[in-house]
Specification:
single chain; alpha/beta; Argininosuccinate synthetase, chain A, domain 2; 5-stranded antiparallel beta sheet; 14 helices; elongated; arginine biosynthesis; Arginosuc_synth; amino-acid biosynthesis
Length: 399
């Protein structure tokens, strides 16, 4: 039996041409693997058949949408994951899931290597290969675009010469990646960060400048995970899909950022992630109500480290696993309801309640019935400021 390589297959130009390109360059049989993470667009059965028509010896399609929502998006939500405090890790979250299925299918079919369609300039090459290395260190990773000199112009010529059943899109100036958590757009005129995004870039969100009545929604959380919207229960995937619809209608979640890539360059990226942004804001509000001060402060540092690890392709690292344990422990009281007002590109928290709330009205109120003993504050401040007072005396004496 000939050696095999399992290719992460999107159905687009590069990975379609990559099937024959890989076979010619390596002599291996190519198995195509398409993973559905809620990217929408073409029917997955059409993608499966296209891979076969392009020369794959087998074509595997995996519906991983529910798995993606449950095992990847919910941990990200618990971590309020935002790389550089801005980007909700849209692409970074899908890569370890795809890599896990790459490694699984390779083992099941006896392949000795896997492949992906990434270039040598982006983050995804690292994410795929680092994940595969952690899951199946005996597998070799191949990148046709990076390792086998498959450029876009060569891909178009190759597709025409071999009559491959794909629609070449050389006229499209953008590079687009999407899944149910959001959508990423780069290249073309966006490579100049002075150029503003145009409305045609967006798909998941409507123009927030269009005036429309606000919508209010109530999101119910249990142990950090959203379980219902306006009293209607949903799966994690269903919650994200519903919030994409509701928040996207008001233009929530548009992001324009110059991002620090793992490979050392800065890249201008435009994202839209309506459900992700709305859910993270709701989750943060509920944490503010239910998590004590010092734990909340410490968790924010952990969130930044967690986001960096995921962005850098280390989903399966030991540090990431340990941080997951900490984050999960912080969520045991993060249950309750958050009311959001959606309008004009914003998701604004307008109400919050929880049976595990740490908010004590009798302590917080300034009205009659206040139970906070203000006489204790004077001594507290004196002790709290004592180190500063002593060091200030020292500084003055040394002048």
């Amino acid at each position: 039996m000939a050696e095999r390589v399992v290719l992460a297959y999107s159905g687009g130009l590069d990975t379609s041409v990559g099937i024959g390109w890989l076979a010619d360059a390596t002599g291996k049989e190519v198995v195509a693997l398409a993973v559905d993470v809620g990217q929408g667009g073409e029917d997955m059965n059409d993608i499966r058949q296209r891979a076969l028509d392009c020369g794959a010896v087998e074509s595997v399609v995996v519906d991983a949408k529910e798995e993606f929502g449950r095992d990847y998006l919910m941990p990200a939500l618990k971590a309020n994951a935002m790389y550089q405090k801005t980007y909700p890790l849209v692409s970074a979250l899908s890569r370890p899931l795809i890599a896990r299925h790459l490694a699984r299918v390779a083992k099941e079919l006896g392949a000795d290597s896997v492949a992906h369609g990434c270039t040598g300039k982006g983050n995804d090459q690292v994410r795929f290969e680092a994940a595969v290395a952690a899951l199946a260190p005996d597998l070799t990773s191949i990148a046709p675009v990076r390792d086998l000199a498959l450029t876009r112009d060569k891909a178009i010529v190759y597709a025409e010469q071999h009559n491959l059943p794909i629609r070449q899109s050389a006229a499209n100036p953008y590079s687009i990646d999407k899944n149910v958590w959001g959508r990423a757009v780069e290249t073309g005129f966006l490579e100049d960060p002075w150029n503003p995004p145009i409305e045609d870039l967006y798909e998941y969100t409507q123009d927030p400048a269009v005036i429309k009545d606000a919508d209010e929604v109530v999101i119910t959380f249990q142990a950090g995970v959203p379980i219902a919207i306006d009293g209607v229960a949903y799966t994690p995937l269903g919650i994200v899909e519903k919030m994409n619809e509701l928040a996207g209608a008001h233009g929530v979640g548009r992001i324009d950022v110059v991002e620090d890539r793992l490979v050392g360059i800065k890249s201008r990226e435009v994202y839209e992630a309506p459900g992700a942004i709305a859910l993270i804001q709701a989750h943060e509000a509920l944490e503010a109500l239910t998590i004590e001060r010092d734990l909340g402060r410490y968790k924010r540092g952990v969130e930044a480290e967690w986001s960096n690890l995921v962005y850098d392709g280390l989903w399966f690292s030991g540090l990431k696993r340990s941080l997951d344990v900490f984050i999960d422990d912080t969520q045991k009281y993060v249950s309750g309801d958050i009311r959001l007002k959606l309008q004009g590109g914003r998701a604004v928290v307008t109400g919050q309640k929880s049976d595990a709330s740490l908010y004590d009205f009798d302590l917080a109120t300034y009205d009659t019935g206040d139970t906070f003993d203000q006489s204790l504050s004077k001594g507290f401040i004196e002790i709290w400021s004592l180190p500063s007072k002593i060091s200030a005396r020292r500084d003055l004496a040394q002048q």
